[in-house]
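pinging the channel bc i need a second pair of eyes. not urgent but kinda urgent?? the chain im working w is below, pasted from the shared doc
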Amino acid sequence: MIDWTRRAFACALTLTLALVPAGLAQAKPKKKHADVTVMTRNIYLGGNIFAPIGATDLADFERRAGELWAEVQSTDFPVRSKLLAREIKQTKPDLIGMQEVAIWRRGPVGLKDGATTPSTEVVYDFLATLRRDLKRRGLKYSVASKQRETDIEAPIDAGHDMRLTMFDVILVKKRADLKVKKRFGKNYAEKIPVPTPGGTLTSTRGWTAVDLTFKGKKLRFVNTHLEAFLDSTREAQAREFVGAGGPLRTKRQLIVTGDMNSDPEGRESPVGAFDILAGGGLVDTWASRLGPGFTCCLEQSDARDPNTNGFDHRIDFVFAKPKLRTLRGKVVGAKLSDRASNGLWPSDHAGAVVKLRLR
């Protein structure tokens, strides 16, 4: 005897499975996104570098330079470094572009037979100090690129020379899916030589870059610091940056960090350099929904402002080319609670951290 009930059930089941869409019958694996977190951070050379420039004679210059050196010691980078390492631990950036990464060295008065003898005794090495503090917090970052910029030396009233060398530095988190393929950089041809009673001091700026793969995506990461002193020089450097000899000529996705010394609203810093960068195809990734994003700057060069009034405009940026989706962003180092117990801020700038979705 035929079991019509069982046969009807089997036919109904077959028909039902035939009508189920293929996508439901076998769910597709969820697509994995490549989200990268980047930080831009000017960590502050430690004092008002412009203070000695207006000196009337050598004695006045040496006195002012001595005051600058005293201020550098007062702003105590070993303390500030711990605050910066705390920021990095809290925000977990994969890539960090840093500016004003200084080495301060001491030596005998350097003019000898008309030649300058560079000072070599290291007093502060900002990068070495920060890397130690990162390691103590269990954070693993490597130096992907380090570009030397300004390197100046002058006598101070203590009877010896002080030498300042500044670098732009790229740090990358050590992780299996992040591989640096190429490192390169360049100083800008546009510089500012500043004659002083203590000798001509030349402000040199530049950019540094790495080509890398991150979660299987090809990426170029660039870091720069444009001139603060003269608008015309800053804008000329911006044109070099976006021009034929700059780092933007690539088929890779591009992320650029830096202290551009230019505010898109022209509030405290002229808009010119920002407009040149935007005209070169760079897209500001800071979304309006994230807030004003003010990163600049303390009003006191001793980095002990009692309030946050100085943070009233933006000059520190994360750019992308082409446009990338901004998932979230945060300003770091701009709250009173970010200071050390003695009132010292991490830097005279705040930093910006942005999480982006790569294409």
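so The radius of gyration is 26 Å. and The helical segments are 4-19, 22-25, 58-74, 77-91, 126-136, 231-242, 272-279. — does that match what u expected or am i reading it wrong
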